[in-house]
Specification:
Helices cover 42% and strands 19% of the residues. The protein is of the alpha+beta class. It has a three-stranded antiparallel sheet, with no helix packed on it. A two-stranded antiparallel sheet has the order 1-4. Strands 2-5 form a two-stranded parallel sheet. 13% of the residues are buried. InterPro entries: RNaseH_sf. It comes from Trichonephila clavipes (Golden silk orbweaver).
Length: 219
């Protein structure tokens, strides 16, 4: 369910873009940083909102008789459960399926309420290597050494066995999401030498070695 500022923004975008509901919704998703899905309304829904605004001068939904919407009734419970899950995770990440499991609700219903009622969207938690104070000096020393070798022998670099690898961590790292109203730009640090399974491949200027799979332990 849209709040009043979002409804006002949609109506404004509708009039600013030659009364095109499709363009207005697209620009709304860009401004609100909504990555996927259909967004808060369909074009037909936005046209109904604009029509109601033109007829009544109001953006609020008409009062409805009967029981309150089940999604709106469940939203506070889901919000509390999501906060509890975030407090339990060291990185503050939240699992919508876990919230659904704890509340006994379908995951699709929880995701729908998060997006449409609570206006929360999933953002991927970025990962970066944990750098220690001594790492900068070591990398600088290696770069200077490599440049000096290339100055002595320009073909030296073609005889190096270059390697590439993909790591599958064993310390519980999974796809992490933060549900928020805007992108929090959060990062999480990972130990550089945590236990992992590695797919490894090496190559030089003349041949390819591998690929191989191997298990690495913490160093």
């Amino acid at each position: 369910m849209l709040n009043a500022p979002d409804k006002a923004l949609l109506v404004k975008l509708f009039y600013m873009n030659e009364e095109s509901a499709t363009i207005a919704l697209r620009k709304f998703r860009v401004q609100k940083n909504v990555k996927g899905g259909k967004g808060p309304l369909t074009p037909a829904g936005l046209l109904k909102l604009v029509k109601r605004f033109e007829e009544t001068g109001k953006l609020e939904d008409r009062a409805r008789a009967g029981r309150p919407c089940l999604k709106e009734a469940r939203a506070p419970c889901i919000a509390v459960e999501m906060e509890a899950i975030a407090s339990e995770a060291a990185s503050g990440t939240i699992s919508a399926p876990e919230a659904a499991r704890r509340l006994g609700l379908p995951p699709s219903s929880v995701r729908n309420i998060l997006r449409r009622i609570l206006h929360l969207y999933p953002y991927k938690l970025q990962s970066c290597h944990e750098l220690l104070p001594a790492d900068t000096a070591q990398r600088e020393a290696f770069a200077k050494w490599a440049f000096s070798k290339m100055e002595q022998d320009p073909t030296w670099v073609f005889n190096i066995l270059w390697t590439d690898e993909a790591h599958f961590s064993l310390h519980g790292d999974v796809k992490s999401r933060i549900w928020a109203t805007s992108n929090p730009r959060e990062y999480t640090q990972k130990p550089l030498h945590s236990p992992k399974v590695t797919a490894w491949c090496g190559f030089t200027g003349s041949f390819i070695l591998g690929p191989f799979s191997l298990k690495r332990s913490a160093q």
